[in-house]
Amino acid sequence: MTPKHKTIGILVTGHTPEELKEDFGTYADMFVSMLGDFNFTFKRYFVVDGEFPDGPHDAEGWLVSGSKFGVYEDYAWIRQLEDFIRSVHAANVPMVGICFGHQAMAKALGGEVEKFNGGWAVGTTTYQRPELNEEQVLLAWHQDQVIKAPAIAQVVGSNDFCQNAVLRYGDWGLSFQPHPEFSPAFYKGLLDTRSSVLPLALVEQVRDVTQPLSTQPVVQEIGEFLARER
What we know:
The protein is an alpha/beta fold. It has helices spanning 18-24, 27-34, 76-91, 100-108, 184-194, 200-205, 215-227; strands at residues 6-11, 40-45, 61-64, 95-98, 112-115, 121-129, 134-142, 144-148, 154-157, 166-169, 173-176. It has one domain: Rossmann fold (3-Layer(aba) Sandwich), CATH 3.40.50. The longest helix is centred in the middle third of the chain and has 16 residues, at 76-91. One of its GO terms (molecular function) is transferase activity. Pfam families: GATase.
């Protein structure tokens, strides 16, 4: 049976570096491409620029992107995004968050996010997924992280550096600290254009993607989560 068609709203919380936009598009474009095998159409809202949906039922599922910003920063659009996340949760419309989106969902629902004093996670990163009885390898790019998960969330993925790397909120929400939408080519471009934000010694350690990525199973998990009838 063909899954029911759904409209997914992408809440874009950051802009692709200008140097990379021609080759890779916006972050919204990356998610559209990533979920291309599913029966979805997409609406894009650049919330980073103040463009918000009218309400949680403007789409049948939501995806919150990554960003260079911190969820603890004092911007009106970030506070408005937290309010919107809470409204989506109250309406039980499914939501998936990636990196900043993962952190925003956690903060909006009672968790704690900080600029991690242990430093950065960048590049090829392995996560334990105990309920799946497997390890998954994805590309990371973050210093901020969820240091305390919301009481309503279950930790379903972690490693020693990032204890709350994948969170599930019952049947409503799913969020990932790493970036399944990042291809090795985009990651290389990001490293080439944005490495100045990283410690120099770290840049040399993370220059290469050193393992095959678990992109396909993670994308399948995300797509099936958003497609599921509730």
